[in-house]
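Progress note, project year one: complex with 6-O-phosphono-beta-D-glucopyranose.
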Amino acid sequence: TKDRNGIEQVVLRNPHGASARVSLHGGQVTSWRNERGEELLFTSSKALFKSPKAMRGGISICFPQFGNCGSLEQHGFARNKIWTVEDDPPPLHQNDSLGKSFIDLLLKPTEEDLKCWPHGFEFRLRVSLASDGNLILISRIRNINGKPFSFSFAYHTHFSVSDISEVRIEGLETLDYLDNLCERERFTEQGDAITFESEVDRVYLSSPLCVAVLDHEKKRTYVMRKEGLPDTVVWNPWEKKSKAMADFGDEEYKQMLCVDGAAIERNIVLKPGEEWTGRMELAAVPSSFCSDD
Ligand code: BG6
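Model obtained:
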């Protein structure tokens, strides 16, 4: 099928009625629905499905730079590029295809990309929908250059929530974080689970493999499991910043929370021929559930 801008998108379905949509624009996941057809990812009603910018919502890829600390455009160029479908990628671990509906995408730099980031790479993204409805993203980035390069990375994930004031995050208590609202100054989280009453824009460092977002009103918990992604970004623009964003509704901050599996504090360094893998698995379950911590 095509998205609103006429760009190809792929629909994944599982046998129980769950689904996901992946756009070739940015390799962005634009929808993830459970078996009841409920949308689990937030997309702004003002989102622009217009190349070359990433649309506001879903899960976008931040690569090779997270944020604006660097010479590239905010969050890097990968989310603004058209990816291709790869029919026969190098094999992944067997469990990563078994019983799943999936699509493999590929991004390689164009001449223009090489001018602003002169590093030869192949970026393979697999998006899978498992038979239990879980959504799995696996990124493999390979250095096909003669020289090492380094990058930062995030799965910029917009969860749909019923009311941000009723939401809390578990798994990030007592961690150090970099505060993007204070020039990335380092602080230590003091309280219990994280709750929201104003703008938040933080990179939690060395976070556990499993982080949970609890939505009391919907009686739903999002569980994020990550591998190769030590950091977790938490972002909500709150009232003032929402009004300043053209592609975001004034009140929409109440219905969305970004929690990103990421590698930011320490850049990933790849020598020639080396490959890095970053895996994020999302589940949406009826109550609090975070088994492997
Ligand atoms: C978050 C960042 O991940 O993304 C914020 O921490 C940023 O600083 C937000 O404002 C949105 O970025 P963008 O480029 O999609 O508007």
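The longest helix spans residues 238-244.
Residues 67, 74-75, 156, 180, 201, 233, 235, 258, 260 surround 6-O-phosphono-beta-D-glucopyranose (CB under 6 Å).
No further modelling is planned for this target in the current period.
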